[in-house]
Amino acid sequence: MATVVTSRLQLTLDALELVASAAVDGGTSRRPHKIAINETRASGTSDDQHDLAYSVDGSVANGAPDTYDLAGSLTALDATTMTYVEVTHILIVHKSGAGDLQIGAAANDLATIWLSSGEGALIGPGGVYLWTSPTNGAVVTAGTVDILQIAASAGTITYDMIILGRSA
Asked: How would you classify residue 93: left for phi > 0, otherwise alpha for psi between -120 and 50, otherwise beta?
């Protein structure tokens, strides 16, 4: 039986800037700021599709990073081993803990997400990291560019993560 992975990404950041000023229309000046994304992706291995999904409710302690090998160590729902050829979406939520969550910065990391190998991103307490590239995903190469590492800068941090991608 073939695995089918569909997804929906809905994200809205909406802010309203107000300035009380008699010089502007004799009252309050307003400026809305908004970005809204509402995308649905079908199952498949072409651009704008994905057929692999992995999620975890993780916990990582300082000095003992979690390492996800995207080319051969993650298990699918049907108990087969997943091998990502491209990663199209990564969503990580820093759920609890006082330190920063460090994404990337490992040997063999997904350097195509960042500018070069050994770089990454930080997520502070309560923060969210979203990387998405549904057409030109991050290419995964077994043994050289296939690791997603998550580390804690201090203490123990809990997080949620979803990785979507393509097998071909």
From this structure: beta
